[in-house]
Specification:
Layout: H1 2-13, H2 24-44, E1 48-49, H3 51-54, E2 56-60, H4 68-79, E3 83-87, E4 93-98, H5 102-116, E5 124-128, H6 130-158, H7 161-185, E6 188-189, H8 191-218, H9 230-240, H10 242-264, H11 270-302, H12 306-324, E7 343-345, E8 352-354, H13 358-364
Parallel strand pairs: 1-6
Antiparallel strand pairs: 2-4, 2-5, 3-4, 7-8
Subcellular location: Cell membrane
Domain Protein export membrane protein SecD/SecF C-terminal: 112-303
Membrane topology: Multi-pass membrane protein
């Protein structure tokens, strides 16, 4: 842990780093490939909507020794529709049949009770109409649209419109991947899924806003210096929050993984599957997009600004002139915008390291050392 903390401090101070922004085309390619896979899965397999959206009946049996396969066959033969049977804990069974009318549900209830050898009232039956699911879907879409609009307005006011666009693209990226994973694994889409999807939106923005805030501070008066381009400063801000983003994501994923793999996998809790899968995929996608998508997109959009273009030309011209003279590319008199002026960055590799002090640099060029003469 001490090594990780030391790494985080060195990343924050700019002593080490990775060129995330410089390699943005790689990340864009990976994201496009994942997104296309998710869209294809969604188009080919589609979403497996639960009865809350399609309508149907749910039967809950008392504790029984009858196998789930036998119950499934009984439910399908009596109802004429596909049945999904899930074992609850170590005894009861949950049978879900979509598109089932009230009359058919009574027939199915009687058949299940006969198979189990219990009275009909021992088999609990819940009938759900599709109109209720339509209301949930409409409210979910309305909430999502309002959330997106408010996010764009807030980020445009608090930061700038380029950051608002980048954050919106990252959110759409996260939602597309999460929904695509649901289609590929065949999990049911239930109200719990909707809750999970709406929950991950806020978390997806958390790391993005933290990086944007640091980038806003670091890029103040950026055009008044000639040491760094906007993309290089964006990369420094991203490296400065990298360890915090990783720590936050890992801490959030651990309990969600417990819900998904233990609660849903071993205990057979259906609602836990619905919520935890959305949270697990959404949290992981949100952490990825904040690091590899949002900040590089801001840098791409910002580099189109005429002032930032002119700054990049000045930086390249200065470095070329210094290289021609055989001098170091750094200028100790320049300060890093919005931060300490005690570090420098290798523009070619994006790896950051400490620079020499002014006095030491003068001494290396043959100047008189400071201090009392003897």
């Amino acid at each position: 842990m001490s090594k990780l903390g030391n790494l985080g401090a060195r990343l924050y101070r700019g002593e080490v780093g990775y060129d995330f922004v410089g390699k943005r085309k790689i990340w864009y390619g990976i994201s496009i490939l994942i997104t296309i896979t998710a869209i294809v899965g969604l188009a080919v397999r589609g979403l497996n909507f639960g009865i809350e959206f399609s309508g149907g009946a749910v039967f809950t049996t008392p504790k029984t020794s009858v196998s789930a396969e036998e119950i499934r066959r009984t439910a399908e033969e009596s109802s004429g529709h596909t049945a999904i049977v899930q074992k609850l804990g170590n005894g009861p069974l949950r049978i879900q049949v979509s598109d089932l009318t009230t009359e058919k549900s009574r027939v199915t209830q009687d058949a299940l009770a006969k198979k189990l050898g219990v009275s009909t009232d021992k088999v609990n039956t819940d009938i759900v109409g599709p109109s209720w699911g339509d209301q949930i879907a409409d409210k979910a879409w309305t909430g999502l649209a309002i959330f997106m609009i408010l996010v764009v307005i807030y980020l445009a006011i608090a930061f700038e419109w380029r950051m608002a666009i980048a954050a919106l693209i990252a959110l759409i990226h996260d939602l597309t991947i999460t929904v695509g994973v649901y289609a590929l694994v065949g999990f049911e889409v239930t109200p719990g899924t909707v809750i999970g999807l709406l929950t991950i939106l806020g978390y997806s923005l958390y790391d993005t806003v933290v990086v944007f805030d640091g980038l806003k501070e670091s890029s103040k008066d950026i055009t008044k210096q000639t040491r760094f381009t906007y993309s290089e400063i964006a990369n420094r801000s991203l490296n400065g929050t990298l360890v915090r983003s990783i720590n936050t994501t890992v801490v959030a994923l651990l309990p969600v993984a417990g819900l998904l793999f233990i609660g849903g996998g071993f205990l057979g809790a259906g609602m836990l599957n619905d919520i935890s899968l959305a949270l697990f995929v959404g949290l992981a996608a949100g952490a990825y997009s904040s690091i590899f998508i949002a900040t590089p997109l801001v840098a791409d959009l910002k580099e189109r600004d005429p002032q930032i273009k002119a700054l990049a030309k000045r930086v390249r011209a200065k470095r070329a002139a210094q290289a021609a003279k055989g001098e170091s590319a750094e200028d100790p008199r320049d300060e890093i915008p919005g931060g300490e002026d005690e570090e420098t960055e290798d523009a070619a590799t994006g790896v950051v390291g400490p620079r020499q002090s002014t006095a030491r640099a003068r001494g290396s060029r043959g100047g008189r050392p400071q201090g009392k003469r003897r």
